[in-house]
Amino acid sequence: MTTAPGGGASTAPVRGRSTRQRAAVAAALDEVDEFRSAQELHDMLKHRGDSVGLTTVYRTLQSLADAGDVDVLRTNDGESVYRRCSTGDHHHHLVCRVCGKAVEVEGPAVEQWAETIAAEHGFVAVAHTVEVFGTCAECASGNGPGAGAGPSAPPVGT
């Protein structure tokens, strides 16, 4: 994956049939830094005047996730939220339970542990996902975007 000016990921081609609607979903993802639900992305597209069905949004997000072009997390209520990967490399996330802020981190120790524990049990071709949930420094100090936040903050976690 390449990096666009400003540090964001560039628009990656959407796997499957290339359509104007799929391109609109991919472009909407490029415009946001934080995780968004399929419904939120659909609303963004609708407000912009793009005629894209919610089913198409879900299918496009799934296609992008399967290709490794977007990160997917689950909120406390089980809803999937999506964000463009800022790196094409395997990574993990630190996620704030209060405001939903997510930071991509590398975890060499986690990688080694996963390989070791899998080998000890005879597993091969191992894949894993690790998300670490907590409260970001800004929210912990009461100064973060989630300070006093109500339902608009996307709580994420276990």
What do you see in this structure?
It is a single chain. Helices cover 34% and strands 16% of the residues. It is α+β, with helices and mostly antiparallel strands. It has 2 domains: 1-88, Orthogonal Bundle (Arc Repressor Mutant, subunit A), CATH 1.10.10; 89-158, Ferric-uptake regulator, C-terminal dimerisarion domain (Dna Ligase, domain 1, 2-Layer Sandwich). The protein has a 3-stranded antiparallel sheet with strand order 1-3-2. Strands 5-4-6 form a 3-stranded mixed sheet, with no helix packed on it. It is globular and about 55 Å long.
Q: Enumerate how many helices there are, as a single number.
A: 5
Topology, number of strands: 6
Strand content is 15-25%
- According to CATH, the homologous superfamily of the largest domain is Winged helix-like DNA-binding domain superfamily/Winged helix DNA-binding domain
Oligomer: single chain
For the terminal residues, how far apart are their CA atoms?
Answer: 30 Å
CATH classification class of the largest domain: Mainly Alpha
Radius of gyration: 17 Å
| Major β-sheet profile | 3 strands, antiparallel
Provide the low-confidence segments as ranges: 1-14, 149-158
The main sheet orders its strands as: 1-3-2
The class by helix and strand makeup works out as alpha+beta
Bin the helical content. Answer: 25-40%
One letter per element, helices H and strands E, the order comes to: HEHHEEEEHEH
Overall shape: it is globular
Subcellular location: Cytoplasm
GO molecular function: DNA-binding transcription factor activity; transcription cis-regulatory region binding; zinc ion binding
Cofactor: Mn(2+); Fe(2+); Zn(2+)
Protein name: Transcriptional repressor
